[in-house]
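Agenda item 2: N-carbamoyl-L-aspartate complex prediction
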Amino acid sequence: MFQAISHLQTDIEMIHGDFKGKDIVSFDQFEVADLNTLFTVTRQMKRIAENNEPSRLLEGLLVGLLFFEPSSRTFSSFSAAVKRLGGQTIEMQNPEAFSSVSKGETFEDTIQVMEAYTNAIVLRHRISGAAKQAARAASFVPVINAGDGNNEHPTQTLLDMYTLYERFGRLDNLTGLLAGDALNSRTIHSLLRGLSLYENNTMYVLSPRQLQLSRDDFVSLQDRGIRLIEIHREEDIPQDCDFWYWTRVQKERFASAEEYRQAQSEIVVATPELLNKYASKDMILMDPLPRVASVDPAVDADERAVYLRSQIRNGVYTRMALLALVLGRI
Ligand code: NCD
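Presented output:
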């Protein structure tokens, strides 16, 4: 049951079965029925991409990719998604160095210019809340949040949940271990919102104390009915998790290099030994990537590690589906 109400970011529209023209800013906008729709479309998109089927679904449409923060996967997978469907992109990475932003143009002006050229804007920004601000500034085209500061990353959650759904055939009754930087990881923040839409999910959150979820997030997420159990030591990892979700310490969110080093030194790294000790044989190990001293490359050969396999590919398929739905072509 969807119970989110009080914590809802007020002026964000729920999808309520109709994606067309909607800004996608927070995972709070999704209900179970919307995810069912998106996953059905994702399966069609997977077929198109896997078979290199020419598609004209987004023909004639332009999508602006406006990335104020570094990105490899999210940027390339959005670009691939548009192009796989026959659409085109305008791509601006690091606009603060290479565009009129460097001359002092306001954020709102940049957004309004981009919307004059395009049919949708995909935005990544280091400031939490920037996607919502962009959605307000753009009156004619939808804005899709590709990660805003340490706030949310809803399209990462779409691919993470699709990966879980493909593997387990359900999104309820799951036990997971979310490790790393729970305080700053926007992918953890959106994923917990997503998993809280389903019954009986239990999430262990493993982090050093200074990187645990903010108390506001902890309380508002628990209010939705998801069971959150915070742990701080390797020894407390339960052995019956369906999945592990590892994240790096978000260096760019720290005030000083020293604070970052301190936090990094307290992190539990996913190694073959850790899997041997605590992971069930049927679980999967996920990571939104990039990994920075978070998952040992020696784990890659383990079949349970999906981050360089299905998880990464699902990023293209789910983004294809989202774009087709938001642009009203499906
Ligand atoms: C994540 C992000 O940018 O939040 N990366 C991604 O989009 N796959 C995770 C991260 O940077 O740690």
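Discussion summary: Confidence is low (pLDDT under 50) at residues 1-9.
Owner for follow-up: CH.
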